[in-house]
Design a protein that fits this description.
Butyryl-Coa Dehydrogenase, subunit A, domain 1, Butyryl-CoA Dehydrogenase, subunit A, domain 3, 3 domains
């Protein structure tokens, strides 16, 4: 993956915005348990950050995915994972299918204001009994005249208390689980949509996460994204972008955990010398730094192949798997070297420890990533190995 002056300009602009407009406030937002998404997104939209690889006719910049990759990696400068996740959801989780398959009218109504930052969006896939097992969702959207009538609920909905609309996956017919689902744009102020509760989480504190109920929610069928029955396929494609987001946006966070641990252990002494001077410490940090560079390589390779139009399901799954596990490894190792201060909420490493734990769960658990990789390797039980 090669980057030019335009890529570096985006990288610098995003970093400058984060340092001026986000990081000075993240401690306050963490304490409040929410950040002002409409205000932050509006300012990001004014700078073109929310539509880098979206079509120009809808207000995007129309650039290829290499520019979006640079943007996602630069999000790693944010010192609170909850903000990073909400931005990534807006750009790479809830809007790719709409931009790719939505009608002109639908994109004008939902995508344009999302790119401008006027609308905050959320993704309605996971349910209480269907997290990584997307095919087993129970929410239904039954046809009635020219409308869909939606009943059910969604769980672990990022930005759920602030969102203006949801990219909803629902069963729109009977039949095979992979062919009976559709994606629907659902305005969150529609009668029958209830934000049941704001969830109390281990980490990502400044990201508002909600449980949502639907009771006879009526929306026009024209709010469906693309073809009926293709929602599962569309969502699987969105997941690939979500998984590359997870890998790319976490690179700088991993590096910062290592770099700030180096700085801390260099000035913290024990038994007459800096902690960093112990070979077991600096060797371990060197090993972890090497792992980060390996993750960057596979992430860039997946992005490069996606630019060529190739299927990157396996590589994106590998990158996401490695990202989640490496975050756990680095945050645990680095927190240990901070000693008692690592256990204090006042230190950033403790926040990183909490926030990054979601990486092995959200967007498909590690076990699901392994199953996808095994499927592409032809090693799942019962499959022909010849």
């Amino acid at each position: 993956m090669e980057f030019g002056h335009e890529h570096e300009s985006i990288r610098r602009s995003v970093k400058a915005f984060i340092e001026a407009e986000i990081n000075p406030y993240v401690d306050e937002w963490e304490e409040a348990g929410i950040f002002p998404a409409h205000d932050v997104f509006r300012r990001m939209g004014e700078r073109g950050f929310l539509g880098i690889n979206k079509p120009t006719k809808y207000g995007g910049l129309g650039l290829d995915y290499s520019y979006q990759l640079v943007f996602l990696e630069a999000l790693g400068h944010i010192r609170a994972g909850g903000v990073t996740m909400a931005v990534g959801l807006q750009t790479d989780m809830a809007t790719p299918a709409l931009a790719r398959f939505g009608s002109e009218e639908l994109c004008r109504e939902f995508l344009v204001p999302s790119i401008k930052g006027e609308y905050v969006t959320c993704l309605g896939v996971s349910e209480v009994g269907a997290g990584s097992d997307v095919a087993s969702i129970k929410t239904t959207a039954r046809k009635d005249g020219g409308d869909y009538v939606i009943n059910g609920g969604k769980m672990w909905t990022t930005s759920g208390t602030q969102a203006d609309w949801m990219c909803l996956l629902a069963n729109t017919s009977e039949g095979p689980a992979h062919k009976n689902k559709s994606l629907i744009c659902l305005p969150m102020k529609t009668k029958g949509v209830q934000v049941a509760r704001k969830l109390d989480k281990l980490g990502m504190h400044c990201s508002d996460t909600a449980q949502i109920f639907f009771e006879d929610v009526r929306v026009p069928q024209r709010y469906r994204i693309g073809e009926e029955g293709e929602g599962f396929t569309y969502q699987m494609q969105q997941f690939q972008e979500e998984r590359l987001y997870a890998a790319a946006s976490g690179l700088l966070t991993k590096e910062r955990m290592i770099d700030e641990t180096i700085a801390y252990t260099r000035q913290r002494a024990a038994f007459g010398k800096p902690i960093l001077d112990n070979q077991v410490v600096h060797f371990r940090l060197a090993e972890l730094k090497t792992e980060v560079e390996m993750l960057r390589a596979i992430t860039y390779r997946a992005a490069a192949l996606m630019l060529k139009g190739e299927d990157v399901t396996m590589l994106a799954s590998m990158a996401k798997l490695k990202s989640g596990r490496l975050s756990r490894e680095i945050s645990d190792a680095c927190l240990q070297y901070w000693g008692g201060m690592g256990f204090m909420n006042e230190t950033w490493i403790s926040r990183a420890y909490r926030d990054t734990r979601l990486g092995s769960i959200g967007g498909g658990a590690d076990e699901v990533m392994l199953s996808i990789i095994c499927k592409h390797m032809g090693t799942l039980p019962g499959r022909n190995r010849d």
